[in-house]
């Protein structure tokens, strides 16, 4: 199916939904408030410059939904083009096949008042993902306040709780999420380290940090690669120092995340310095693989880390074990 480009003379139009069709930039759609563009896989090639030129017209746009999942290479617009100003944009939903395309769109528009964004990419190299998560989304996060951050191997979420204290995650006033293909542990460690640096200003005000499992499988602490463990340790160190106000840390107890307690033993004063609530095991079934002697692998380290924190005047107020441990597992 070919892409249909046409001219609209509809100055009173407020809401528009186009599938495999694109109004020409000469169209009279300057009063649009909501725009949905859907380009499926069968559509003929479309240049990002066509989409960006169209977005220059409805300057009072409040909601934009864009889905472009075809596998045709999309050329970047000319670098000399002016940034699209969308000062009224509040909601943004974008799905692209490639992360590079999402980067181009995000970097081509200025929308300082976006308070809700859902982004998704279906393929991404590590450099492209670093660009998307570390550079392209940064201006959008900078204009908003968030108190919750969630990192997983396939999603990054910034959110603002209803009370603004990081404890009411079920009721959110604003959220910014990016979904991407699931990463292997080494790539995940590299991305975490990059985000801790490039998004430092947005992380500085976070009260609650949630970390997801580093692998989508059960874990064996004796079979992890030394390079991955070293990279993950370094990434966690950077993240712990990038979250100086985080009071709650929620994480699984897989091999990689148990490194948190090794770091906490060595750096009790500076690593996640404000954390007083620790939730372990959330969303992770990996430890059910082990025998009843397996708590010796990690529990003594947990106790030693907590004791080090207490010794420097930073004790935990609450430690919560979540998951299957409280059912019939032999702990």
Please name the defining characteristics of this protein.
28% helix, 331 residues, alpha/beta, 12-stranded mixed β-sheet, two-stranded parallel sheet, 16 strands, single chain, 9 helices
Account of the 3D structure:
A hairpin with a 3-residue loop joins strand 10 and strand 11 (155-161). The chain is α/β, with parallel strands linked by helices and 331 residues long. Helix 2 runs parallel beside helix 3, helix 5 (185-198) runs parallel beside helix 7 and helix 8 runs parallel beside helix 9. The model is unreliable at 282-293 and 325-331 (pLDDT under 50). It has helices at residues 48-55, 99-108, 126-136, 138-142, 185-198, 200-203, 226-242, 259-266, 295-311; strands spanning 4-6, 15-19, 21-23, 34-39, 63-68, 84-85, 91-98, 109-110, 116-123, 148-151, 155-161, 172-179, 208-211, 248-251, 277-280, 318-321. Helix content is 28%, strand content 24%. It has a twelve-stranded mixed sheet with strand order 2-4-5-7-9-12-11-10-13-14-15-16. Strands 1-3 form a two-stranded parallel ribbon. It has nine helices and 16 strands.
Rough outline:
elongated
Largest sheet report: 12 strands, mixed
Percent of sequence in beta strands: 15-25%
Oligomer: single chain
User: What is the CA-CA span between the terminal residues?
Assistant: 59 Å
Query: What is the helix/strand order?
Result: EEEEHEEEHEEHHEEEHHEHEHEHE
Helical fraction equals 25-40%
Please count the beta strands (DSSP E, at least 2 residues each): 16
Strand order of the largest sheet: 2-4-5-7-9-12-11-10-13-14-15-16
Radius of gyration computed on alpha carbons: 23 Å
* Mean pLDDT across all amino acids: 84
Tally of helical runs: 9
SSE-based structural type: alpha/beta
Low-confidence stretches: 282-293, 325-331
